[in-house]
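Lab notebook page, bench 4
Experiment: in silico fold of construct C2
Operator: M.H.
Input chain length: 113 residues
Purpose: comparison with the prior construct
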Amino acid sequence: MAEPDVLDISQLSAGLFVEYLGPTENGPDVTMVHAGDAEPLCDRLWHGHPGVISEPMPQHVLVTWAGLEEAVASFAVGFSCDDQGSYRGLGVISALEYETRRTRTLDGKSPTG
């Protein structure tokens, strides 16, 4: 697998397709829903999980993760850049790659196979 294109602060914009570069996570801290009876469509935030930047604040970037739209991971967990302007937890992916990974994730599979 190719080395991920780590998000740089100069690329930061709402609507940018990204992947999660951290370890696969699960449990109540990741999937706890925001309000009401909405349930996440998948059970964890996977390494390689596809998402779309929803709030491009330099020190608290929010990402709406596929299948976890109403989960803590999408509305409360933000990413900050390092001193070089890199977001080590986020990689940039294409729209096509986003759709491929989104489909796999919503089917309950690892986004990267």
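Observations: Strands lie at 5-8, 17-20, 25-26, 44-45, 50-57, 60-65, 78-79, 86-92. Residues 5-106 form one domain.
Next step: discuss at group meeting.
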